[in-house]
Write a structure and sequence with these properties.
With 433 residues, the protein is an alpha+beta fold. The protein is built from 20 helices and 14 strands.
């Protein structure tokens, strides 16, 4: 298979440099020989760095892909695990030739069963001593990258302080321990400096298809997973579990620690920054809704309408987008499923919009408003109904007093009641006051 061929290519290149054993036949034995020869040549023990050690397993996880080995059909996931096991198990035998081994990956070592016979590596994922190991801190950014920040600011026509703010919202926000030290994504940050353009570099570098497959198996939605407190065992003991996708989402970098509650030893998990939120929610929304419209362009059109107070254009945009969702995606068996689809669709839409505006699901003294969006000049209070009326939605805004906190706010306030039809799948009634 591809994995075996890739390992063979790499091994052959090492053997060309360090020599091949006449007796070693297996991949593991050949690797041991290479490590020993490298130590003999340079007089120093080897350091082994393996990035994404579990990628060959995750790439085929839950796909059903199979291969034939000695006439027997085997799942590619299991076959790749066996190959990796034979490769990684050499570390114990080669102990005398090794200084240390560093592996990065998503799934926990003990859960993947590829290190049989090898002393389990120490998990430093949440160790405060290493929390800034794989990123750039704010102090490092300002000390080492003052020049690139200024150059990028000039290109964008803003001050250095404004540019630092843009970079922080786009690429900062990772935390890997109770210490809560902010860490920037170095891949995206360096690409932004190199190209003088703030884009979604990290997310565009690879689609986490295995996460989409995992989420398709669970009844949990993103709104049920994000912005909540968890005990460490709920997201640290990570394995490729289709019933519990949270650990995989966290370890893949799409959620991060946003707060720590010492009394109960609980961690708040949410999206780290705009790059990740926009990319991941767009991916999930496209897979869940399968709209015929281009989601990114649609979101930008909505944001522009919000900025300019164009509520009629908002109505048209929501109507057309929801109408573009295929019937097969919104056809649900019972009322509970219909209600779930309705609320999750709205959640995904406003999560995408929140990348560009202030979006909140605010708790008021008499209840929670469905959605409040704030721009520099406008405030929008949305209330949504399914198979009801827009007047009922507006009446709830008034009865619950959702607009009271904004009575002294000089910005223009719109109260918008919207009713969606389960039959047509789109806006049936929209009223603005």
């Amino acid at each position: 298979g591809n994995l075996e061929a890739r390992i063979e290519e790499t091994m052959a290149a090492w053997e060309k440099q360090y020599g091949r054993s006449d007796t070693a036949q297996t991949t593991g034995a050949r690797f041991i020989h290479v490590l020993h020869q490298a130590r003999q040549r340079y007089g120093r023990r080897c350091v082994v760095l393996i990035d994404e050690y579990d990628k060959p397993i995750l790439d085929v996880l839950d796909t059903g892909y199979a291969t034939t080995v000695d006439g027997e059909r085997r799942l590619l996931e299991d076959r790749n695990r066996e190959i990796l096991k034979s490769f990684y198990s050499v570390f114990k035998t080669a102990d005398e030739d090794l200084q240390f081994v560093l592996l990065t990956g998503v799934t926990k070592f003990s859960q993947v069963s590829v290190f049989s016979g090898f002393n389990q590596p120490a998990d430093i994922s949440m160790d405060r001593r290493y929390e800034t190991l794989c990123g750039i801190t704010q102090e490092e950014l300002e000390h080492y990258f003052a020049g690139p920040i200024h150059e990028l600011a000039e290109d964008y026509g803003c001050t250095d302080d404004d540019m630092r703010g843009q970079l922080r919202h786009q690429y900062d926000g990772y935390h890997f321990s109770k210490g809560m030290v902010d860490v920037y994504n170095p891949f995206s940050l360096l690409n932004a400096f190199a190209s003088l353009d703030i884009q979604d570099y990290w997310f565009a570098s690879g689609t986490p298809s295995y996460l989409v497959r995992l989420l398709n198996h669970t009844q949990e939605d993103l709104n049920e997973l994000t912005g909540r407190y968890y005990r460490p065992e709920e997201f640290v003991d990570y394995k490729a579990d289709v019933e519990k996708p949270l650990p995989m989402i966290y370890q893949s970098g799409y959620l991060t620690i946003k707060g720590y509650e010492r009394t109960y030893n609980r961690f708040l998990l949410d999206f780290p920054n705009n790059e990740v939120k926009n990319g991941f929610v767009s991916l999930i929304a496209a897979d869940y809704l399968k709209p015929q419209e281009n989601m990114k362009n649609w979101v930008i059109d909505v944001v522009e309408s919000l900025k300019h107070g164009d509520v009629e254009q908002l109505r048209k945009l929501f109507t057309s987008f929801l109408a573009s969702i295929p019937y097969s995606m919104r056809a649900k068996k019972d009322e509970a499923e219909k209600e779930r689809f309705f609320h999750y669709t709205l959640y995904l839409i406003f999560r995408l919009i929140s990348v560009y505006t202030v979006y909140t699901e605010k708790e008021q003294s008499q209840g929670r408003a469905d959605c409040i969006v704030e721009t520099d000049e406008y405030i929008y209070i949305f209330e949504f109904k399914r198979d009801g009326t827009a007047d009922e939605a507006l009446a709830q805004i008034e009865a619950k007093g959702y607009a009271r906190p904004y009575e002294a706010d000089p910005r223009t306030l719109y109260k918008i009641g919207v009713n969606f039809s389960s039959e047509t799948g789109t806006v049936e009634d929209w009223r603005t006051v």
